[in-house]
Write a structure and sequence with these properties.
By secondary structure, the chain is mainly α. The chain has 2 domains: 193 residues, Growth Hormone, Chain: A (Up-down Bundle); 197 residues, MFS general substrate transporter like domains (Growth Hormone, Chain: A). The chain has 20 helices and no strands.
Amino acid sequence: MLSFLRNNLRWLGGGLLLTFASAFGQTWFISLFAVFIKDQHGLSDGSWGSLYTAATLASAGLMFWRGGMADSVPLSRLAPMVALVFALAALGMAWAPSVAVLGLSLFLLRFCGQGMFSHIAMTAMGRWFEARRGQAVSITTLGHPAGEILMPLLVVLLIGVLGWQGTWLLVAALLVLVVAPLLCWLLAEGRDPVGQAARIQSPGLLGRQWQRRDAVRHWLLPALLPVLLTPGFITTVIFFHQAHIAQVKGWTLAEMAPGYTAFGLSTVVAAFAAGWAADRFGALRLLPGLLVPMGLGVALIAPSGSVTGWYLALAVVGMTQGMAGSLWGVLFPVLYGTAHLGAIRSLATTIMVVSTAIGPGITGILIDGGIGFPAQAAVMGAWCAVMALWCWMITLRVQRDLNPA
């Protein structure tokens, strides 16, 4: 492992920087400024939530349309370009003279952060690594939990010193002066372990290099759709409704805070374990177990009377989140080949972004209708159990396509 890290530090560092900096466009980061933004623009909880959902859905649409640039534009150019647009969005959050500008800024934040930064990182790892792709992906995905663990407290302190608008200006400066130049340098050289010709000839299912339109028409991608939607949906709504959960359970948000550390740490451990297992046994064998921890974790929320149960629930949910980052990063090249990996991944990323947009709205309507989130959590746990069986059935059929007689 040390030799692997030393020999590939440049490329792994670029991927890790992309996932870490994607934090500036993630829901949990933006939510730290929600009180100030709503006060500045006179928004209610409902109007703020609707604006956020609309911006996220629009970013998913653009992700579907332009995500294929990762196949046609050198990543050493694409990543810094996205970083500059990202910085412009951060400036818009600080300046925003109107709700329209705020909405545009949110749209660009979501597209660049949750969308393109993560998409470029995973596309690069899938294309540049083969024999140790799982380890490369798991190392790169560490940027996500690292941001979740390190940034919230730091941002709260910065808001106290610089103000919320000053903190967004600092984010913009970091993206322009630090992130963009580093990405230019780290991604300046591509990597291919077996040569360009051999890489392009590395096929997926049925010995083919799949294009996105072909993948959409094939049975597998529609079958994977609910599996792709589930982790983002459940994780987002757990975070989004934490105040409601606290009210129902009689906990305080301060008491619940250590749960996010447990979530981040379990995500890290699971990402490494899944990356190793994907290289050792094959990513496809991990698919049936992907949603099992999340199902157990979310189901624990309903009966938990002590806040300790909340910590355990988030820790177990984090296992699926860590597994998912490593699993999809390794599995998509196996299923669809590497020639059009950016276009294929952009579709999957679009699906995941949509899941984070629709989750809060659907569950919020149910809460307003008298169905509390703890009750919903039990249903989500059962859904994950059904999806685990579904994944097992998918795996059996895919194995026949990957290994035709």
